Amino acid sequence: MTNKNSLTQKSMSLYPAKTKMQVTIIFFVVLGIYIFSMYKTQEQMVGGFSGALGNMYVVIEKFFPPNFAILSAIWNSMLETIKMAIIATSIAGILTVPLAVLSAQNITTFKPLYYLTRTLLNLLRTIPDLVLAVIFVGLFGVGIFPGILALTVFSLGILAKLISETIESVDMNPLEAMRASGGNVFQVIWYSLVPQVAPQFTSLVLYVFEINIRASVVLGMVGAGGIGLVLNQQLKFYNYPNAMTIIIVIFATVLIIEFISNKLREALL
Amino acid sequence: MIEFKNVGLVYPNGTEGLKNINVKINDGEFVVIVGLSGAGKSTFIRSINRLVTPTSGSLLVDSEDILTYKGKNLRKLRTKVGMIFQNYNLVKRTNVFKNVLAGRLGHTGTLRSIFNLYSKEDKALAYGNLNRVNIAEKLYNRADELSGGQQQRVSIARVLTQKPKYILADEPVASLDPPTSHQVMTYLRKINKEDNITTIVNLHFIDMAMEYADRIIGMRAGEVVFDGPVSEVTEKTFEEIYGRSIREDDLRGGAQE
User: Fold this and answer.
1) By the CB < 8 Å criterion, does B114 face chain A?
2) What CATH number belongs to B2-249?
3) DSSP assignment letter at B83
4) Assigned domain for A262 exists
5) Which chain A residue has the Cα nearest residue B94?
6) Is B73 near chain A, with CB under 8 Å?
7) Are B90 and A180 in contact (CB < 8 Å)?
8) CB under 8 Å to B245, separation ≥6 — which residues?
9) Residue ranges per structural domain of chain B
10) Best exposed site among A114, A212, A227, B76 by fewest CB in 10 Å?
11) What average pLDDT does the segment B8-28 reach?
């Protein structure tokens, strides 16, 4: 009985033989491309993968043990990074409101204005945060201020886009009711649009805040202040135990902030 | 008084919403507009507060042509002409009290309304109107916690808080069950008689139109095909308006005893 069953199972395939053959060929072709490109890339590396593993050992040996003695010295820079992210996110959060409304098709019915803000925001998003930081550091010198500017512009691009899409998905009926009871544009927006998007707005701002913390570390490496700046200095001086401590501190901070903001967002939605 | 003079409306896609409408609605009347969906009832009613704009003719509200209104004039017109919707159109995440106070928006300055600085009188008015439709105990409930009938009563309170001279109701009972429908219509009728507010209601249920209306206007394909007091209306009139015989689903049923 069981034998017969297994036989029927064997002869019945879910896919026709031809499809099976094609998929198998495609699979091996893709695999071949991967292996070929891996081989080619390795040629450019110093010692291939075995070399990388050896290097890894050297790196670990250099980085460990971390020098926790500098904790008190880097604490201020870490706080500076958090401050940068908070200020940038707050400014972006405020500036995003008019931009998001103007780039939402259902609210801004005047087409030229809608296209203008849309295009502006699209342009804003094409500039990488690192490039923004380099530009602002060039303009204002090394420090926290260019960092804040770069983060603000960077997060404004993301936020305005996400929030305008939230606005475009709201229920338009209450807006019609407010208009029908004689409310002006601001009253209609405040009374029927704001309550509908407020939870998502807060959630998105928190999300962008998390992104900003991480981004500000990278921006610090090109001179935009905060912990990234210190990390970059230590790496340049080959002071790996110090650098390791900084990396651990960043890691812990990002984890804690993500945890808090996740809890906040859960409570909101 | 509302007066349609040769009013026509062509939508941008070429559909004719209204064709040469000539209707005069006197103060204090309770008018029910009947017709199949797509007959132009909504377009008719929404022309009066300019949620849609007719493309020809003139529409007089209190002897002023409203078709040229813009900005401030338009908002002033809308404070005078309140509206009730099929889907209640409350702000779901906001509480009942604030939803009702939104009826004062047209009378309140932008800053005052944004910071919730309503006068004592306005708040008392809003609360009183909630009482009139027997839903004052839900004052601080969020609108989405209420049933359909309760939400429609809140929207009636909102429109009353606006202190309108005219009330437009666009299919106010289409999403409700028969007993709740009758309750909502009874409130509308009562308000019409007690406050002498001219009321224009869109309905497609024949029995409800007969029960509550003073006057019935029948529409078909954007034209007024019947206009007369309810006493002149028979089943034959409805067959003419609908262009077919009357069916079971043209009746709401569940009339109050």
Assistant:
1) yes
2) 3.40.50.300
3) E
4) yes
5) A195
6) no
7) no
8) B239
9) 2-249
10) B76
11) 91
In a domain, A51, yes or no: no
A-B C-beta contacts closer than 8 Å: 81
Nearest to A180 among B83, B91, B107 (CB): B83
Answer for the pair B101, B112: CB distance below 8 angstroms, yes or no. no
φ, ψ at B163 (rounded to 5°)? 50, 60
Q: Predicted confidence band at A269 (pLDDT cuts at 50, 70, 90)?
A: low
Q: How many residues does chain A have?
A: 269
Tens digit of each residue's pLDDT (9 = 90 or more) over B209-253:
989 999 999 999 999 999 999 888 888 888 888 888 888 788 887
Residue of A nearest to B87 (CA): A173
Write out the E strands in chain B: 2-10, 16-25, 30-34, 56-61, 64-65, 81-84, 166-169, 198-203, 215-220, 223-229
The residue range of the domain holding A218 is 73-268
**What is the rounded distance in angstroms from the CA atom of residue B147 to the CA atom of residue B169?**
19
Q: What is the ipTM of this complex?
A: 0.85
**CATH number of A245's domain:** 1.10.3720.10
Please, which pLDDT band fits residue A6 given cuts at 50, 70 and 90? low
Mutation site, A172, A181, A202, interface B, largest B CB count within 10 A: A181
Contacts of A187 in chain B (CB under 8 A): 105, 108, 110, 113-114
User: Which of B93, B117, B156, B158 should one mutate to test binding to chain A, selecting the residue with the greatest count of A CBs within 10 A?
Assistant: B93
Q: Quick check: is A52 in a domain?
A: no
Both tokens of A249, joined, read: 């501190």
- Chain A contact for B165, CB < 8 A? no
Between the two ends of chain B, the Cα-to-Cα distance in Å is: 34
Residue A37, domain member (yes or no): no
The predicted structure's pLDDT at residue B257: 43
In this predicted model, what pLDDT tens digit does every residue of A77-103 receive, in sequence order? 888 888 888 999 999 999 999 999 999
Q: Do B105 and A176 touch (CB under 8 A)?
A: no
Concatenating the DSSP letter of every residue in B219-253 gives EETTEEEEEEEGGG--HHHHHHHHTS---GGG---
Domain count, chain A: 1
Q: Which residue among B85, B89, B113 sits closest to A187, beta carbon to beta carbon?
A: B113
What residue in B sits closest to A196 (Cα-Cα)? B93
DSSP-assigned beta bridge partners for residue B8: B56
At residue B21, the 3 state secondary structure works out as strand
Residues of chain B with Cβ-Cβ distance to A192 below 8 Å are: 91, 102
- Establish if A176 touches chain B: CB-CB under 8 angstroms: yes
